[in-house]
Design a protein that fits this description.
The complex is a heterodimer of chains A (358) and B (293). Chain A is mostly helical and 358 residues long. Chain A is built from 14 helices and 4 strands. The longest helix of chain A is centred in the middle third of the chain and has 27 residues. Chain B is 73% helix and 3% strand. Chain B is built from 11 helices and 2 strands. In chain B, helix 1 crosses helix 9 and helix 9 packs across helix 10. Classes of the chains: A mainly alpha (358), B mainly alpha (293).
């Protein structure tokens, strides 16, 4: 798979390494509650990076993200329960199985596009949920609550506290983001962008459309599978309820709210979508009080706000938070009187630099 | 399977088919007119059921007034969704339009939950307490029979409207080629809005009919997703094929549930969908336009 790899510049890796050290230093001061929120955020970022690769870079629509994560999650559960092996086995195995299913489901994508493809992935979603449910029922005792994974081991090391998880997930997350950044500039990444923008033109200039469309599915679903494995170990539980259609939709929402095809978009979108429920909870707690009887209302308000955010971004800011940031930067530049660089923001790398700046 | 059980399942399946047919017809009409894929169709069904409950049970209005008010409110909702959310996105990529209908669906579900709560609600409709003796060995509810007839009548009325009315002709013309139609003086905004209105109306009939047999609940919106396979089997752009697709999916689902168990319900529809997309991507009756690159 030489297409998937260009020699990376030293900069993204260096930036990621510095960021990792900074994060770890800062994280030591944070209480466990906030760390767990960051950990969920990292899992979402990893998974969303996979989906952004498929939708944002290669332009193929998918509603199957929850299904691919479920494949990873249930692989982790099976490896833990039946083989007694740890993350070092289940992570690659879960990613590989998800990638295999991604390959199979990618085959119709060669003939279908747009919403027919969305429907294929939707059918995959229901098939995966059904299979997961069956698997859960067949396993007997775990029918009601799903599978539990008591401990997460990486080789001889045990990952238990939120801080240890934060270090592991930060490492995996930054690795995914650097990989995404690198991938978007590799031969494959440029082929995907070409197919996304005009597939006929891409095939005329010699891009093997079939091959790269499938490759996008394989890589994307592999990443989603890996995220599913990590989530399974972090939650310590794999249950079919956690892989609903809402999850698949919220990952598409992350990409739309953040911005298509960029690292910054993936990160910012994940932050917005994951923190939104807490924001609503906070607002309702202030306005109507945090009574247990309000729980249903809060739930509906959270769902409603989620819908409003999706709709509002699509109507008013289709480029997502990244688009807003670009506009703010441009107006700042105008105020300070300096000329924007030739070629506008396209010549600058919008990716890892912004993550670094955060 | 005893004959009794078979007849009961057949009637169940036919009602489900009728409900799917009306929901799927909404997809097809919107898709043909605007090329948009409406993920909020199930929410239109749900809203139809809740609004029916509101007028018939909360306000205790007579049946026919209720029906008129339900159709009127859902027409407003359909037009509102089109003008507020879909029309501003003209020219945006397909994904944006798909996702905005999903966003609207989430929003409608949340608002309905806030307004009516999450408990199941029940209403009474005419014929619910009347029973018909079928051939001496099976008793069916007159409501069930009326449901099937009502679904078929609504479906037929919409088909007749598209075929015989001048505005229906305009709708078919703009589905064929919007640019040419608008140059011949067809008001595209009107045609597009009308297709959303018709979709909302047919969905509300389906939702209310289904809720009468079961309950008014937020879960009715899930039926919208099960209606996709019906539209796909029919070919997605064929109005007549959709009815056959709906019967195939409705009967397959009902009989699988009876033979194998209720956990197979969703997967049957998904399986039919996958098989059709793999082997006949444009359905049994759809227009073939496979892209090969």
């Amino acid at each position: 798979m030489s297409d998937l790899w260009t020699l990376p510049g030293r900069r993204p890796f260096l930036a990621a390494a510095i960021l990792l050290v900074l994060l770890v230093v800062v994280a030591q001061a944070l209480p466990s509650y906030y760390l767990s929120r960051f950990n969920f955020l990292w899992i979402a970022i990893i998974s969303a990076a996979g989906l952004n690769l498929l939708i944002g870079l290669s332009g193929q629509v998918s509603l199957g993200q929850a299904a691919f994560m479920a494949i990873g999650g249930y692989t982790a559960a099976a490896v833990h329960r039946y083989l007694g092996l740890d993350l070092l086995v289940s992570l690659p195995l879960g990613a590989a199985l998800a990638a295999l299913v991604g390959f199979l489901i990618g085959i119709p994508s060669l003939r279908l596009r747009g919403f027919y493809l969305a429907l294929t992935t939707l059918a995959l979603h229901f098939a995966a949920v059904f299979a997961a449910n069956k698997f859960q029922l067949l396993a007997g005792d775990s029918a009601a609550t799903g599978f539990s994974i008591e401990r997460a081991m990486v080789g001889p090391f045990r990952i238990a506290s939120d801080f240890e998880w934060f270090v592991l997930l930060s490492f995996m997350g930054l690795l995914t983001l650097v990989g995404f950044h690198n991938l978007s500039r590799s031969k494959a990444g440029r082929a995907w962008t070409a197919i996304r923008d005009r597939d006929i033109a891409a095939s005329i200039i010699g891009v093997d459309v079939t091959r790269y469309k499938l490759l996008a599915f394989v890589v994307s679903s592999g990443i989603a599978g890996a995220a599913g494995v990590l989530q399974a170990y972090y939650l310590g539980n794999v249950a079919v309820e956690s892989f609903g259609l809402e999850l698949a939709i919220s990952y598409v929402a992350i990409i739309i709210v953040g911005g298509m095809g960029t690292v910054a978009g993936t990160v910012l979108g994940a932050i917005v979508i994951l923190q939104l429920p807490f924001l609503i909870q906070w607002i309702t707690a202030i306005t109507v009080g945090s009574d247990a009887s309000n729980n249903f209302i809060i739930f509906d308000l959270q769902a409603g706000a989620f819908g409003v955010v999706i709709v509002a971004f699509l109507l008013f800011e289709p480029d997502g938070v990244v688009g807003i940031a670009k506009r703010i930067m441009a107006s700042l530049r105008r105020i300070s009187g300096s000329q924007p660089p030739a070629g506008g923001s396209a010549s600058r790398d919008p990716g890892i630099a912004k993550v670094e700046a955060r | 399977m005893t004959l009794n059980l078979f007849v009961a399942a057949l009637i169940d399946g036919l009602i489900l088919s009728g409900v799917y047919a009306l929901a799927a017809l909404g997809f097809v009409i919107i898709y043909r007119a605007t090329g948009v894929f409406n993920f909020a169709q199930g929410e239109f069904m749900m809203l139809g059921a809740y609004v029916f409950y509101l007028f018939s049970t909360t306000y205790q209005l007579p049946f026919f007034l209720t029906v008129a008010l339900v159709l009127g409110s859902l027409a407003l909702v359909g037009a509102g969704v089109f003008f507020l959310f879909v029309r501003p996105l003209t020219g945006q990529p397909l994904l944006a339009v798909i996702i905005i209908t999903m966003g609207v669906a989430i929003l409608m579900r949340a608002l309905t939950g806030l307004f009516w709560g999450t408990t199941n609600l029940y209403f009474m409709a005419p014929l619910m307490t009347t029973f018909i003796d079928v051939g001496g060995y099976y008793t069916m509810s007159a409501y069930d029979l009326a449901s099937i007839v009502l679904c078929l009548l609504t479906y037929g009325a919409i088909m007749a409207f598209l075929r015989f009315s001048p505005i229906g002709l305009q709708m078919r013309a703009s589905a064929e080629n919007a640019t040419l139609a608008s140059q011949r003086g067809v008001n595209l905004n009107l045609v597009f809005a009308l297709s959303w209105i018709i979709a909302a109306l047919s969905a509300s009939v389906a939702g209310a009919v289904f809720a009468g047999r079961t309950a008014v609940s937020l879960n009715i919106s899930h039926l919208g997703l099960s209606a996709f396979p019906a539209a796909i089997v029919g070919g997605f752009d064929s109005v007549g094929g959709t009815l056959i697709g709906a019967v195939v999916v409705g009967l397959a689902e009902t009989f699988t549930v009876i033979v194998l168990g209720s956990e197979y319900k969703d997967v049957v529809a998904a399986l039919i969908l996958l098989l059709v997309l793999m082997f006949r991507p444009y359905g049994l009756f759809g227009t073939k336009h496979v892209n090969r690159i």
